[in-house]
Amino acid sequence: MTTHSDPVAPTDTVRWSELLNRRYGPSVILVCLGVWLHAADSLVVATKMPSIIAEIGGADLVAWNISLYEIGSIVAGAASGLLSVRFGLRTPMSMAALLFAIGCLASVVAPTMPVMLVGRLLQGLGGGGLVSLSFVAVGLLFPKRLIARAMAAISTLWGVSAFLGPLAGGFFVEFFNWRIGFAFFGVQALLLGLWIWFGARDFGSKTQDRQGGRFPVLRLMCLCAGVVLIAYGGIDVSPVKTGLLVAAGFAMLGTFLAIDARKGADRLLPMRPFDLRRPAGAALLMILAFSAGTIAITAYGPLLVTMLHGASALTAGYIVACSSIGWTVVAVSVSGYSERHDPTFIAAGMCLVTASIIGFALCVPTGPVWLIAIISFVEGGGFGMAW
After folding, report:
1. Of 235, 255, 270, 372, which one's alpha carbon is 20 to 30 angstroms from that of 312?
2. By C-alpha distance, which of 183, 73, 224, 187 is closest to 134?
3. CA 327, 331, 336 angle in degrees (round to 5)?
């Protein structure tokens, strides 16, 4: 693996052979593996959850398997940029892989659901760190003209994981044991961490020549508290209780943003992160809006399709997977075009996502199921095109 330093003769399109070769191929594999662990694990666990509850109980805590994993991912993702600045990529990525492996081990031996939740939190910290640092690595290890292709390769792994995740979970439950599934991913994480530490030499350099201040414990605590309060407000919904919890959660998130803005060079987010007049602010707002607009079908789609249309759990799961598959297909299709087409693709992607939200509103209540799957594909395609 190597960082980019030599000029590349510009052409209008980028060939896959420019990326998938001896020079850049190992870096592509490494960042894709980091994304694979994060993306596939959540889908595998969703498929295994009925068997887990049947063995160790804790049905009343099942929602926290998702919440704690995502909370860990959010905290790790927020800290990853600063960690890469201070320590380079090798140490944070190898430690993230180790955290993920330890979380899998905790899940393997979990006698009760609370122990399982500890494992899920550690998996979220490790998986969130791996996926966010993988995206950081794309910007550092590849020349600018190859970044879209590298992102398309990551999108391909995301789509593959969406397709294989439910199948893998069902395979372990049917032929082995759900604990073996966690061991399977834990071993992968451990091997990935060893590869990063001993083989990824170019991952060791800092992204900037500075060490920074102390680790942002207070800011991450505020961020974590805000997410937990909002998530908890949705478990037992009532106008007063939920309203107070959500308000308190947004207050903690506002505190996080206010403290972070005063940290200068040690801030976790870019300066004025939601300012539409700045490229970084516009991009972050776009991603935030996309995520808010598309999370409903991911969180509630399988349940609604199962309840309203009598679809099987596997069918409902693959309706959500269609979104990831659409992301992959479209991202790969447009990734070879030159940068001058970026504004067109971003705008077109936003229009597709908007149209898909309208389509879901019309079709989820009435069906048919195949049309919901097509709309899910369109939604993912729009997101992948803009991303």
Report:
1. 235
2. 73
3. 175
Phi, psi of 367 (to 5 degrees): 85, -165
Each residue's pLDDT tens digit, 334-349: 877 777 888 899 899 9
Cis peptide leading into residue 368 (ω within 30°): yes
In whole angstroms, give the CA distance from residue 183 to residue 41: 11
Residues, the chain:
387
pTM over 0.85: no
Cβ neighbours of 93 (radius 10 Å):
32
Contacts of 148 by beta carbon, 8 Å cutoff, 6+ apart = 14, 334, 335, 336, 337, 339
Identify the residue whose tokens are 């009598």: 310
Q: Indicate if the pLDDT at residue 3 is higher than 60.
A: no
Distance of alpha carbon 380 from the chain centroid: 14
Please state, in angstroms and rounded to a whole number, the distance separating the CA atoms of residues 86 and 138.
Answer: 18
DSSP for 157-172, written as a single string: HHHHHHHHHHHHHHHH
Which pLDDT tens digit goes with each residue over 201-236? 655 554 444 455 567 788 888 888 888 888 777 767
CB 84 within 8 A of CB 92: yes
